[in-house]
């Protein structure tokens, strides 16, 4: 009996304390450690390798196990083994570098998670490693947006070097040039689209936001010389992922988001993704609010290994008020009026509908030839009623400004705009001796149309002496106007009541029928652009070259659909040359030269009052830099220096007798240097940092005092940093902290030598706690409660940043 008891005790003690364990280490082919690799057991347990590339699974039952290893840039690996009770098995796994052919069109979603994005299509129209693109490309991934709870592109761009807000609209500065100036051109998945401009849409349906710096006309046709913004939508994944997120915070903000993706059949030939978004938020700005609905489904059909089809739809319904900015006293004291004070009335509204539908198709005929086609349809509808500044201060009877009263006007507008973009091109992967070629040859067509039906009513000016109409005030003809005396000051009676900046209760529900309106219909408009291009990426040993040439033709239809319809065309030939040299496995050096253009629109070219015709805007970029990957390719660093020249720029002449008269300045030059850092230092430590120095000014002009003055809205210095660390083990496992700051130096305001926007620095932080499938998150922004302005046109239209604010969220991943 004693023997039996002893045996039983030994059996139970052995099984209680001698655990069954699988552990090991993951390296690359050269024996370097691979921290951050995913390790998954077939029974659903997952892990991630430590800083030393190590993993461990404990408390296993004896039996057969299959382990899957994967990490970005490496081929997946599988190991199968049997373990006995109490046994510790040790594996040494070497992951082979990935030689997988990347998709030429972004149809399948990005599986990477983190702040680093390895590949992009925007730089070459092929899936190319960013390290191999001879031009600077900045980006922000959805993971960074989520960590910062950044829900507008304006909140996102602070993480990019050389990109800042010009206003709070869809309106940005890139390398000293404003991106809005030509038809509000943006890119969605590499295709030309339009935006509503006034309100930035939510970003919950985006995989990333990226900017190709400098003229991008050689790839995409006419665009801003500073660069162009591309919004990349989330695509379906071959694996099932689902998440729900709810947020609440300052300014009575509530948001709800959903993201579902995965296969729709067992063969995984039909994939889907559905992103939903809802926002209902007030603002630190009086009377301002945003109510948004986002529906963004995406479907991918993969009938075979060589054919892929994708459909993307993004529908955004926005209900809000248009914020024309903050006005301050006419004594140029930027701090004289609270940043909360807007110029709206209680019955103002802005309703916008925006729908973007993209279809794309890719077919690989053989290992050398592939055909790609994409089509994007955009429809934007605007319904607007607004009280806004008339861009001046009120006047007394002698025409003198009253510095605390703002002239007001009312706009009522309805319009609808349609945009179409077709892109078709072939990819050829061939070799000539030792030189490998990736050739792209294609055709683009884009058009923009505003049909008949757009109309606007405007009420402004001062009432005439019979109170039957209104017009601009002329102090030299006092008998034409109606007058009133207020606080002992005689002044003309405004058509729309002035806004009193000193009033503590200025907001009213105005009777719209009391104003005198001038009504106008918008003429129908139409323009199109078409381009033919060829590009070759050559590789010979450590050298790579990119040679591109595009012929582009822009046609504007003056007096569209009328008997006097006239076609005004401009065409241009655009070269692009880039070189890349691989210094070692970590560092690539590059240099590039490219040209761009922006057509001067037909209304200016053929306007006799403007003094035209004028030549197109012509730009060129010279850039050199280095791109590198560190810490097992988890962290990327890009350093660049550039010079951009822009010719044929039009400025207002300032002729009081002819306000339409334009003049050309000789040349605007922008030059500077930038640094971008993205990725992970360790598996649990993420970081992004950016810095930009920019000098952007008129270099040649017949007006001597203009030469050398920094361009409006362009800071000389701008930068940011954000870092996040999560605890991966122990009692505090799942707890994370994030913190960062961004700064912008002083900027000039449009054409005014006195008015400037002060420099600012904002500090933000966040806490995270993840347990099982839930994550709790708390963000605190502008911790020091700084008063600052992100942009502005002048001191009647300033755009302040938000004071201290918080946002909390709970997410469920299943």
Automatic annotation (TrEMBL):
GO molecular function: siderophore uptake transmembrane transporter activity
Record localization: Cell outer membrane
Keywords from the UniProt entry: Cell outer membrane, Ion transport, Iron, Iron transport, Membrane, Receptor, Signal, TonB box, Transmembrane, Transmembrane beta strand, Transport
Stretches assigned to the TonB-dependent receptor plug domain: 130-228
GO annotation, cellular component aspect: cell outer membrane
Highest taxon of the lineage: Bacteria
Main location group: membrane
Pfam families: CarboxypepD_reg (PF13620), Plug (PF07715), TonB_dep_Rec_b-barrel (PF00593)
Membrane topology, from the record: Multi-pass membrane protein
InterPro entries: Beta-barrel_TonB, Beta-barrel_TonB_sf, CarboxyPept-like_regulatory, Plug_dom, Plug_dom_sf, TonB-dep_rcpt-like
One record GO biological process: siderophore transport
Domain TonB-dependent receptor-like beta-barrel residue range list: 307-783
Record-stated family: Belongs to the TonB-dependent receptor family.
This protein's name: TonB-dependent receptor
């Amino acid at each position: 009996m004693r023997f039996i008891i002893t045996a039983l005790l030994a059996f139970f003690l052995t099984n209680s304390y001698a655990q069954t364990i699988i552990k090991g280490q993951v390296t690359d082919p050269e024996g370097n450690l691979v921290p951050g690799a995913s390790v998954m057991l077939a029974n659903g347990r997952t892990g991630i390798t430590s800083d030393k590339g190590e993993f461990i699974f404990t408390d296993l039952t004896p039996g057969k196990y299959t382990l899957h290893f994967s990490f970005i840039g490496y081929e997946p690996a599988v190991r199968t083994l049997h373990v006995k009770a109490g046994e510790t098995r040790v594996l040494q796994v070497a992951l082979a570098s990935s030689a997988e052919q990347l998709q030429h069109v972004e149809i399948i979603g990005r599986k990477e998670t983190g702040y680093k994005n390895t590949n992009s299509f925007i730089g070459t129209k092929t899936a190319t490693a960013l390290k191999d693109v001879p031009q600077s490309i900045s980006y922000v991934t959805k993971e960074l947006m989520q960590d910062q709870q950044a829900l507008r592109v304006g909140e996102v761009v602070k993480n990019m070097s050389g990109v800042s807000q010009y206003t709070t609209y869809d309106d940005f500065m890139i390398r000293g040039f404003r991106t809005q100036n030509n038809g509000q051109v943006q890119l969605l998945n590499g295709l030309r689209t339009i935006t509503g401009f006034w309100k930035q849409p939510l970003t919950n349906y985006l995989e990333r936001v990226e900017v190709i710096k400098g003229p991008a006309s050689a790839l995409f046709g006419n665009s801003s010389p500073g660069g162009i913004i591309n919004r990349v939508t989330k695509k379906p994944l071959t694996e099932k992922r689902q998440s729900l997120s709810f947020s609440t915070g300052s300014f009575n903000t509530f948001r709800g988001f959903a993201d579902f993706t995965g296969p729709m059949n067992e063969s995984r030939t039909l994939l889907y993704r559905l992103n939903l978004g809802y926002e209902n938020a007030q603002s630190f700005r009086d009377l301002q609010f945003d109510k948004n609905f986002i529906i963004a489904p995406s479907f991918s059909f993969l009938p075979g290994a060589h054919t892929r089809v994708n459909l993307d739809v993004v529908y955004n319904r926005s209900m809000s008020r248009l914020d024309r900015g903050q006005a301050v006293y006419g004594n140029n004291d930027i701090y004289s009026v609270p940043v909360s004070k807007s110029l709206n009335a209680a019955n103002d509204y802005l309703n916008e509908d925006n729908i973007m539908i993209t279809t794309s198709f890719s077919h690989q005929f053989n290992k050398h030839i592939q055909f790609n086609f994409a089509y994007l349809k955009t429809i934007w509808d605007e319904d607007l009623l607004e009280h806004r500044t008339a861009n001046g201060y009120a006047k007394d009877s002698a025409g003198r400004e009253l510095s605390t009263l703002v002239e007001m006007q009312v706009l009522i507008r309805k319009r609808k705009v349609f945009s179409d973009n077709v892109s078709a091109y072939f990819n050829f992967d061939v070799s000539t001796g030792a030189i490998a070629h990736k050739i792209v040859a294609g055709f683009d067509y884009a058009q923009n149309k505003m049909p008949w039906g757009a109309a606007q009513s405007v009420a402004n000016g001062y009432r005439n002496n019979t109170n039957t109409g209104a017009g601009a005030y002329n102090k030299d003809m006092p008998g034409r106007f109606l007058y009133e005396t207020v606080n002992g000051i005689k002044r003309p009676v405004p058509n729309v009541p002035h806004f009193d900046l000193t009033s503590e209760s200025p907001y009213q529900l105005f009777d719209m029928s009391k104003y005198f309106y001038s009504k106008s219909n918008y003429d129908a408009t139409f323009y199109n652009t078409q381009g033919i291009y060829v590009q070759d990426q050559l590789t010979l040993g450590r050298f790579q070259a990119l040679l591109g040439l595009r012929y582009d033709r822009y046609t504007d239809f003056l007096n569209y659909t009328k008997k006097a319809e006239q076609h005004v065309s401009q065409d241009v030939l655009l070269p692009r040359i880039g070189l890349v040299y691989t210094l070692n496995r970590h560092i690539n050096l590059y240099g590039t030269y490219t040209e761009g253009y922006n057509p001067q629109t037909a209304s200016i070219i053929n306007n006799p009052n403007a003094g035209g015709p004028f030549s197109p805007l012509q730009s060129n970029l010279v850039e050199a830099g280095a791109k590198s990957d560190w810490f097992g390719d988890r962290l990327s660093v890009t350093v660049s220096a550039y010079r951009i020249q822009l010719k044929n720029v039009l400025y207002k002449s300032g002729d009081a007798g002819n306000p339409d008269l334009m003049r050309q300045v000789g040349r605007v030059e922008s030059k500077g240097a930038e640094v971008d850092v993205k990725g992970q230092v360790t598996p649990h430590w993420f970081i992004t940092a950016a810095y930009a120095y920019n000098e952007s000014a008129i270099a040649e002009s017949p007006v001597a005092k203009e030469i050398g003055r920094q361009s409006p809205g362009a800071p000389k210095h701008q930068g940011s940093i954000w870092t996040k660390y999560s605890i991966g083990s122990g009692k505090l496992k799942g707890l994370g902290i994030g913190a960062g700051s961004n700064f912008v130096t002083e900027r000039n305001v449009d054409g005014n030598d006195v008015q400037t926007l002060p420099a600012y620095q904002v500090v933000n932080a966040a806490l995270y706690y993840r347990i099982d499938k839930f994550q709790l998150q708390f963000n605190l922004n502008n911790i020091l409660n700084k008063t600052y302005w992100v942009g502005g046109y002048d001191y009647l239209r300033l755009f302040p940043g938000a004071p201290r604010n918080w946002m909390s969220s709970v997410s469920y991943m299943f």
